[in-house]
Every structure is written in structure tokens, then in C-alpha cells.
Write a structure and sequence with these properties.
alpha+beta; about 35% helix; Thrombin, subunit H; 3 domains; about 300 residues; six-stranded antiparallel barrel
Length: about 300
């Protein structure tokens, strides 16, 4: 009798038999799927069941990719923002420069027209900076004795009188504005020809028509121009405009306040008038006067 113990596990068919069975089953399924597509519904069911597992498996990769894209986009946007700000600053600087050049060009054109109206030789100058004394109204221009500037010459802009040259250096000159408290300018009222002397108001930037009789014929908005009796300013240059008149019977003089006609605190380009009158040159095609003998050419020496 055989007394061998029974095996603990039933092995079933041999491994080669099982391998051949599964190979045959796989071939059969592939043929059926290729010919009749019987496994299409099964494949869709397994794909549907496996989709959540795929999303869970891909979640860390997608999270890392999204984080990298987020930080890359933030850095790119920050860099682009900085570049746009730099371009904006450059454009603003160019725009301000263009506006400044346009204003300067307009001022130079006005000065050119004013130079043609004033019957004196003039020198174009530019205001560099204000004087050091805070209690005076003075500016420094970029023309001096080397350019023919002398003390006492009048300084004007395209509108009217700015001041007077009081100190001259080789390449610089000091101009005292008409609003300085020590400056006196002879003027006359355009409306009636009344002559007076206007005084600078100092830090107020205004002018005072002092020592004018209380009953003098001066009205608000009257234009005051240079009278020319001092020999410094040519007659007819606008100086100021009357803004306020206070008359009191207890005082013999009226208190008259004026504002300068010229841009004493605005423009940078001015004209320095010489003491000599400038006559325009005669045109080349001018006809000789009646009765004037024509000039004869001298024969050249052989």
C-alpha cells in the first residue's frame, strides 16, 4: 500500500498545458476582436474604470507642471512690466524734452519778432540762474563784456521790459529785474500820456506807481510803457499793467499796484539792448533818390 501523504496544494494541469491554453485563448480573443470587435465594450468598461486611477497617478506631475508654469509666467510678467515701465519713463522724458524744446522755439521766435520791432542793436542771452541774495530780484545771463554787454543796458523779452544790466563780468552779467525794490523805471500811461516813475515791489513780484497824486487820471487795466526820458530804455516798451488803485482823502498820494507785463519769472531767453540805434541795411535793389548823382567807378591803376 502506498502511504505517501496527500499534497497540501493541488497543482492542477501542468504549466506547459496552462501556457498553451492561455496562448490559444489570447489568439482567439485577438482574432475575434479584429474580425468582429467583441472586446470593444469590455475595453471601454476597463478604460472607464481605470480613468480615475490614471488621473490620481498623473496629479503630482500635473501639479508640478502647473506650479512651474505659474512661476515662469509670474517672472515673465514681472520682467515685461519692468520693461514697459522703463519704456514709459523714456517716452515721458522724450515728451517733456520735446515740450521744452517746443516752448523754447516759440520763445525764440517771439524774441526774433521783438528784435525787429525794437530800433536798437540787441544781443540774445539766456538766463542761467537767479542771484545769490534772497532779498533782491536779480538774475545772471550768459553774456558778458566779451560779447559787448555793458552796465546800464536794458533787458527785454518778447512782451516788455525785464530789467537792467547792473554788473558785468567777462562772460557773465548781472541783471536787476524791474520788480527789485531798488529799481526805478520812468513810465507813462498809454491812454493819456501821464508820466510817472514805477518802483519795484521786492519779494511780492509786483510794481508800485508811487508818488502819484490821488486825483491823477489813472485807472485799472491801464498799460504803462517806458517814457524814454532816462535814456536807458527806448520809449514805448510795455512795463506793467495797473491792477489795483486805493485812494484816501487823508493822503496826498494814491496807492497804485501794478503787475509786470514781461515774464520776469518765466522766460529763459532775453534780449540785451545796446545804447546804439540799429538801422536796417538798405535793400540791394533800392533806387537812388531823385537828384542824386550816380557813383562813378574809379579806373584801376595799371
Amino acid at each position: 500500500m502506498d502511504y505517501q501523504p496527500p499534497p497540501f496544494f493541488s497543482r492542477g494541469p501542468a504549466p506547459l498545458v496552462r501556457l498553451g491554453f492561455f496562448i490559444s485563448l489570447a489568439v482567439l480573443l485577438m482574432v475575434l476582436d479584429a474580425r468582429f470587435r467583441y472586446a470593444e465594450s469590455i475595453r471601454e468598461v476597463f478604460a472607464l474604470l481605470a480613468y480615475p486611477l490614471q488621473r490620481v497617478a498623473l496629479a503630482p506631475v500635473e501639479l508640478l507642471s502647473a506650479s512651474a508654469d505659474f512661476f515662469t509666467t509670474q517672472v515673465a510678467l514681472k520682467r515685461e512690466n519692468e520693461q514697459l515701465k522703463a519704456k514709459d519713463l523714456l517716452a515721458a522724458s522724450d515728451l517733456l524734452t520735446l515740450e521744452a524744446l517746443r516752448a523754447e522755439n516759440t520763445q525764440l521766435r517771439r524774441l526774433s519778432e521783438a528784435r525787429e520791432r525794437v530800433p536798437r542793436v540787441s544781443t540774445l542771452a539766456e538766463i542761467l540762474y537767479q542771484g545769490r541774495d534772497p532779498f533782491s530780484r536779480k538774475v545772471i545771463i550768459d553774456k558778458g563784456s566779451q560779447q559787448g554787454v555793458e552796465p546800464g543796458q536794458a533787458v527785454i523779452d518778447d512782451v516788455g521790459v525785464v530789467g537792467q544790466v547792473t554788473r558785468v563780468h567777462p562772460f557773465l552779467a548781472e541783471v536787476t529785474l524791474i520788480t527789485d525794490k531798488e529799481q526805478r523805471t520812468p513810465v507813462e500811461v498809454v491812454r493819456n500820456g501821464l508820466r510817472a516813475v514805477i518802483y519795484g515791489g521786492g519779494d511780492k513780484g509786483t510794481l508800485d506807481l508811487s508818488y502819484t497824486a490821488a486825483d491823477a487820471d489813472v485807472q485799472a487795466n491801464d498799460l504803462l510803457v517806458t517814457s524814454g526820458i532816462d535814456g536807458t530804455y527806448p520809449p514805448g516798451l510795455p512795463v506793467a499793467k495797473v491792477t489795483k488803485i486805493e485812494r484816501d482823502a487823508a493822503y496826498s498820494f494814491a496807492k497804485i499796484t501794478c503787475v509786470p507785463a514781461a515774464g520776469t519769472d518765466q522766460n529763459r531767453q532775453v534780449l540785451v539792448l545796446s545804447r546804439e540805434a540799429g538801422l536796417p541795411p538798405p535793400p540791394a535793389d533800392a533806387e537812388p533818390r531823385a537828384g542824386a548823382a550816380p557813383k562813378q567807378k574809379r579806373p584801376r591803376k595799371q
